[in-house]
Amino acid sequence: MKLILLMAQTVDGKIARDSDHFPDWTASADKRFFAARTREAGVVIMGSRTFDTLGQPLPGRKNVILTRNAERVSRPPDLVFTDDPPAQLLARLASEGHAEAILAGGARINSLFAAEHLIDEIIVTISPRLFGSGLSLFDTSLDLSLQLLEVRRLDADLVLLNYRVIR
Length: 167
Description:
The protein is an alpha/beta fold. 24% of the residues lie in helices and 31% in strands. The chain has four helices and eight strands; from the N terminus they run βαβαββαβαβββ. A hairpin with a 5-residue loop joins strand 7 (145-153) and strand 8. The mean pLDDT is 94.
């Protein structure tokens, strides 16, 4: 199963000001790209804080929410809460017939998958914003080597960078 980390970030590398920051700061071209790419994959994986910030499942795709809260209730087939370890979760999704999933944060969840070397590609959209401080793509120290696959302008001020993770 192919796992793609897909995140918007500011020019100074921040994905949010803090863990409760609603992602309304990204351009409409970024939102359109995210919606299309996650629908194409069919599965989006995120942490419970990211999900709570959004407030509802993203329509038209399976939403898998990593949480340690056993009281959260899934509403299959579009909303699944799980405490499965990352590798086990991806294996389960593959056994369900999914060939690809999008990892959509936050920083802690991104780090869990990166630490186990499960991320195949990283797509970031660089928004013309500066936060100065805030959350980064990862919340832990990593050493990943990347190969640039694509640079694309999504609109006048928004750039998409697509990297393959080198193993």
